[in-house]
Amino acid sequence: MTDTFNHEPVIRVRDLKKVYRMGTLEVYALRGIDLEIQPGEIIAIMGPSGSGKSTLMNMIGCLDSPSSGEYYLDGQLVSDLVDDELAAVRNKKIGFVFQNYNLLPRANALQNVELPLRYSDEKTSLRERSASALDKVGLADRMTHKPMELSGGQQQRVAIARAIVNEPAIILADEPTGNLDSKSGQEIMELLLSLNARNGTTLVIVTHDPGVAAQAQRIVHLKDGLVHREENGL
Amino acid sequence: MKLLQALKEAVSSISGNRTRSFLTILGIVIGVGAVISLMAIGQGAQQTITGQIESIGTNVIYLMEGNMSEDVTNPRDLTLLDVKALENRNRAPNIEAVSPVLNANIAVKYGRESENTSVVGSNTAYQKIMNLEIAEGAFFSDSEVNSNASVAVIGPELAQRLLGRTTNVVGTSLRINGQPFRVVGVTVAKGGSQFNNPDLNVYLPITSMQMRVQRGNSAGRVQFIIVQARSSESMDAAIAETNTIMRTSHRLSPRQANDFTISKQDDFLSIASAITNVFTIFLSGIAAISLLVGGIGIMNIMLVSVSERTQEIGLRKALGARKADIKLQFLTESAMLSLLGGVLGIGLGWLLSSAFGIIAEQTGTPLVPIIGIGSVLLATLFSAAIGIFFGLYPASRAANLEPVEALRHE
Q: What is the tens place of the pLDDT at every residue in A45-83?
């Protein structure tokens, strides 16, 4: 259990660089990012396309490894882990919320939420934990519905339930309201904020929507692979 | 638990794409169906051939003229004198019975009805060696053989074809090669093939066959001689006695090779099984090729499926699936597809061999296809193995996808 008061950051990034090699050409996506995120913080990452926003999100989400630099997640150095170790970290520590929900179309809500638990070492009471996660997002009465039978907002709620089912250290949301109308978008934001308020789950939102970003405690602006400026939201 | 989960997902994926799944496994279905039905027919053929060889009689030695393995000049004919020599109980204590055979396909006539059939000339011992049972009348006697009597014993089916009845046949007069013969007995129906049906046979005293039917065979020549040993244990002794007696009878000096050939039933059985084995290997080769083609079809579709589900794979990886988890999922799916093909193929093979069995029965071919548990097990294991083998490449392609790339894939 992370202690909220000792100010050990849940995410600590030091001089993080990512270089893509295209033939002989080297393209810097990240040129040396320094970033600390405290437990329970709500942070928005913004920036124009090409700013390294997506690359940083992939690094924070342990979907990709940096070329150099250090990344500590929840006290663990994860920047030099190998694929399967990263998979275990993603499974335990990170809850993903995607713009396009990314639900399995053939599986119902409950089965979709169960998916991370199936890849975890601890496979007890899958059903109960998934049902409880769906209950927390207000979909207790939609457990056996398939994604196609749900509205966009409801589908994103299923995705959020899937993100929190393993009780991760951080929720990483990539444009979570991008595919939704403003009303459902706001509902989703409120749900995320309330989960943060209730459980103290760190919330990292990648967005280009200033309205969404404004609801964060801190907004990090990226430009050309570097932190351009930070401002306080709320 | 993991495997159970993979099985559930495979079922869901396969049933979510029914038409494609069916078309994918069609190659395996046909391949396995071919294997099962061809092996069933092969085994049935082997059974039939073995059965026919065994039906000739037990503990039997065949004596033929000539020598196929050594050069012999002017081999002597086998004659009734040889038969007489072999019948000598003092010199051949292990021989139970000796029967000469002279066989020909001849037209047998009754009134205007005519039937080309197998006419067998032999002696009274023939009845016992061949287990011929008599339904009406009696087999011809020793005195009828000695007096080359114009008597015949016929099979019930021949009676039916010529006379239109199988009873009340004794006393009827038939013409064989123009010579009149009186029917003295009708055998009990045995059933048999179109080519070798004892129910269509005519049995004559060997002397009558030599003198009346095959006129000019006054030397007493016979085609072959059947020697029956007292028991299976005395087979070797009986063969040795036959050899000694025949060498004496043919006045061969010690330096001369046999001018006759002794064969056992076992020899025929091993030749027959050698032939059917070659047949089976040949068919299995063809079937293996069709299974290979089926496996490539599965690999093809699995590759398509991996590329279609790239984003799903990316998601699973993001949620914590390891390479092994993804690999297991796709391997399970291809193995299940292939196994399903195998099971359907077994059904198809069963249908095909049943149909073959019905056709064989209708045409009077004595062939009952046999589906062995061995071939069913083999087909099942083999199809699962094909699924795993041809699923390996697509599964490792899926497992090695980069999560970032896969998630971005549309």
A: 999 988 999 999 999 999 999 999 999 999 999 998 999
CA distance B331 to chain A (A): 17
Closest CA to A192 of A219, A170, A222: A170
Those residues whose C-beta lies under 8 Å from the C-beta of residue B153, and which sit 6 or more positions away, are: B132, B134, B137, B139, B140, B183, B184, B185, B186, B187, B202, B203, B204
Place of tokens 């330096």: B255
The parent domain of residue B194 ranges over: 77-249
Give 3-state DSSP helix, strand, coil % of chain B, rounded to 5: 55, 20, 25
> Which residues in chain B touch residue A91, judged by CB atoms under 8 angstroms apart?
319-320
- Measuring CA to CA, which residue among A186, A171, A166 is closest to residue A44? A171
Are B315 and A64 a contacting pair at CB < 8 A? no
Give the model's pLDDT for residue B277. 83
User: How many domains is chain B built from?
Assistant: 2
Residue B12, domain member (yes or no) = yes
Where do the domains of chain A lie? 11-232
Asked, for residue B255, whether it belongs to a domain, the answer is no
Residue A118 in contact with partner chain B when CB distance is under 8 A: yes
Q: What is the pLDDT of residue B371?
A: 87
Give B321 to chain A, closest Cα distance, Å: 5
Tokens read off for A33: 């990012």
Q: Which chain B residues have any C-beta within 8 angstroms of a chain A C-beta? A: 1, 5, 12-13, 16, 311-312, 315-325, 402-404, 407
Q: Using one digit for the tens of pLDDT, what is the confidence trace for B106-161?
A: 899 998 889 888 899 999 999 988 888 899 999 999 999 999 899 999 999 999 99
Give yes or no: residues B242 and B333 share one domain.
Answer: no
Q: Which CATH architecture has domain A11-232?
A: 3-Layer(aba) Sandwich (3.40)
Residue B322 lies in a domain: yes
Closest residue of chain B to A101, computed from CA coordinates: B315
Chain B contact present for A127, CB below 8 A: no
Question: Which residues in chain B are contacts of A84 at CB distance < 8 A?
Answer: 322-324
- Inter-chain contact B13–A106, Cβ cutoff 8 Å? yes
